Each structure stands twice: as C-alpha cells, then as structure tokens.
Protein: Flagellar hook-basal body protein FliE
Organism: Cypionkella aquatica
Amino acid sequence: MDIRTSLATQSYSQARSAAAPEPAADSAEAMIGRAVGNFAETLAQGEQTARAAMTGNADPHALVQALASSQLAVETVATVRDKVVEAYQEILRMPV
C-alpha cells in the first residue's frame, strides 16, 4: 500500500471543502443594516434635492420625486416598527 503525503493532503482538503457548511445567504443583522443604510441614504438624497430646489438649482419634478421617495421610506419604516411592536406585544401575551 503506497500512501503519499501529498495525496493524503489533497484528499483531506477536498473532503474538508466538500463538508464545509455553505455560508448563510444573509443574516438578519446584515439585512437590517442594509435597510437602515438605504433609509438614511433616501432621506439624505431627499434633503439634498429639497435644498437644491430652494436655491433654484433643481427642477420641481426632481423635488416631487424626492419627496415621494422620502415619504414612502418613512411610511415603510413606520409600518415595520408597528409590526415589530405588535409581535412584541403578542409575545408578552403568551402564557408562561
């Protein structure tokens, strides 16, 4: 029986990579972080467009679009907050 070190090492590395767990697609923490970042970015863009419109550097169409986008973002965050509070209250109602 001829066992070479390189063959054993190669077989071990192939078996190890095949048995390695797949990385999670997205953790909840990463998704929440991206959502918060997108929300802040949307509000910042809306504020920037509003400032530009006040000084006459942006067209009214861009201002209306930025305001609608900001409003949608705020309503989405409020809805998510309400669902989280509702879920928390439901957990508190559970019998122990």
